[in-house]
Amino acid sequence: MSETTSDPRYKRRPPKRPLRLSWSDERVRGIFWQIVVVAAVGSVIYWLWSNTSHNLAVRRIATGFGFLDREAGLPIAESLIPYDPTNTYARALFVGLLNTLKVAEVGIVLATILGTAIGIARLSKNFLLSRIAGAYIEIIRDLPLLLQLLFWYTILQGLPGPRQALKPMEGVVLSNRGLKLPALMWENAHTAALVAFVLGIVGTWLYARMARAKQMADGQPRKGWPAARGLILVLPVVVWYALGAPWEIEYPVLRGFNFRGGMNISPEYFALLIGLVTYTAGFIAEVVRAGIMSVNKGQREAAQALGLKHGSVLRLIVMPQALRVIIPPMTSNYLNLTKNSSLAVAIGYQDIVSIANTTLNQTGQAIEGIAIIMAVYLTISLSISLFMNWYNARIALVER
Predict the structure, then answer these.
(1) 155: helix, coil or strand?
(2) pTM exceeding 0.85
(3) Is the Cβ–Cβ distance between 200 and 207 less than 8 Å?
(4) Average pLDDT of the chain, as a whole number
């Protein structure tokens, strides 16, 4: 029996049938209907495009993306890169893209932290903590996000002015002009130290892979913390010290009718960030709770019987297994947070939607403006999906 199954002749695939140009052949029918569907979709797209082009030409409406090189004349309150109204529409839209990414990236990180904490608290044996977490989840998820954004924006606008600003701690100022925080005086040496820190993380990851491969080959464990400490901590400090980077903190100071210096977080951005984070955290909390409950209770009991503390059980046994359940729906919540950031136009935060709307109102080229918005959100969503799918494949169980 073993000789028969090991014979390579039995492992060959059966020969393929030749394709016959006959309607009775299912492969011919499949190819035919695919051609029909593609032709129908192509015809509809061509008809829509030609009809739109004809109507635009009849009404003498300009088309194309040539307007991107024209002067925008559009004021933007906050920008991550230098900008003034004399710049082009292309730069203005790029500023809006960066503002959208600033909200999405920070919001995803904070919503993940807050949602995970609330999801774990929802399963706590402490009655009061569990009920507070449950009430938060039910209330936040049942209120429309737009209403929450307007609520937080109204609260921030109702804060006292700069002269009567709230100062919860040294260097932190909260007023109706936004949140002021101390900031490091940034120079090129700090940029070099930051680059060294990123390279250190990459080097640590490569060393960990190499050490793991060698351990699989010879069975000898290798410590990774010396390399991590040297690459992530020592290397950036050496670069920072060698280039003479100063360590000066700039504090916000009241000058005239507003604070100067430090880092400024505008009321619009602050309200948008709080609303998105608190709203999305309610959904993430339920995802985390479901993922933790999917792990067999017997594993937790066995770990506790071995003497592990509750935090160690959660960190070492429960969460690594729960991630396989958490990651897929978590991707949807990240995408929802990114797309919900388009509601920023309701509270005056100038993201890609707000700037694109102003652009199409000034130029009259609505189709191009809508196409830019769609392309931006499609690209961001696909990027998030690709990264989360890659991470999900990394932590998936692999059969051996």
Answers:
(1) helix
(2) no
(3) no
(4) 85
